[in-house]
Amino acid sequence: MAKYVVSRVKTGIPGFDDLIEGGFPQGTTVLVTGPTGTGKTTFAVQFVYKGAELYDEPGVIVTLEERAQDLRREMLSFGWDLKKYEEQGKIAIIDGVSSVVGLPSEERFALEEGLNVEGFLRYVYRVVKSINAKRLVIDSIPSIAIRLKEEQNIREVLLRLNTILLEMGITSILTTESEDPKGGKISKYGVEEFVARGVILLDLVEKDVELKRYLLIRKMRETKHSMKKYPFEITENGIVVYPSGEIY
Q1: What's CA 229's distance to the chain center, in Å?
Q2: Nearest-CA neighbor of 80 among 174, 173, 170, 13?
Q3: Nearest to 41 by CA among 135, 148, 137
Q4: pLDDT for 162-187, tens place per residue?
Q5: DSSP assigned state of 191
Q6: Which of 113, 175, 188, 226 could in theory staple to 40 by disulfide, Cβ–Cβ 3.0 to 4.6 A?
Q7: 216 with 200: CB under 8 angstroms?
């Protein structure tokens, strides 16, 4: 009997793929969680940007935390020119912020005010299809819930989101907040990790009076991975993971 081989999607994050047998399983939804300021957005955008730059895989970024123009400007600090790939049709950014703050969006792709879950999912689906995207980022889940006024139904929203993502066969990163990962609460609502097929925690640990960043793979279906905490840094070229670094 032929051995089942999992197709892998390279993340474009140096050192990280060594920890997950060469990349995310294709078509997987991965949750990236952690407290504020741990690098979740950078991790997610790096996945899409490097997909376009290194692997010729188009990607969509749904930004619900900051305006698209702010995200572009921020990512230029890593030398990532999102605009260049947007113009080539390799990256699409969906602005999910302007309408919420009551500003007209100047973006090609923007979510309207008063969208429900169906409308949101349909719009994302349409943009994914329009550039034939292979990668998708939604930053972040709490912002979807607040925006769609669906916090009490967040479980159903996520299940529907996940079903659509699986149908599309796209490899996705969803970000969420975790206030207290060390206390065992690794996501804002406590349901996000059950929907995702992979869970990556980014956090800080105090080491010799210095705060160090680490990454922990809590879950990755169809993948052998260690449950150790690996150091990573946010460098001028983005996130770098040290698989053989000191484990905290």
Answers
A1: 19
A2: 13
A3: 137
A4: 899 988 999 999 999 997 777 778 88
A5: -
A6: 175
A7: yes
DSSP conformational letter for 61: E
Question: CA-to-CA distance for 9 and 172, rounded, in angstroms?
Answer: 10
* Cβ contact 137:176 at 8 Å: no
For residue 31, give the amino acid letter.
L
Percentage of the chain modeled with pLDDT above 90: 69
Which of 113, 105, 32, 37 lies closest to 67, judged by CA?
Answer: 105
Q: What is the pLDDT of residues 38-59, one digit of tens each?
A: 999 999 999 999 999 999 999 9
Spatial distance between the Cα atoms of 165 and 124, rounded to a whole number of angstroms? 10
Q: What is the pLDDT of residue 248?
A: 62
Distance, in Å, from the CA atom of 213 to the CA atom of 130, rounded to the nearest integer, reads: 37
Q: What is the pTM of this model?
A: 0.95
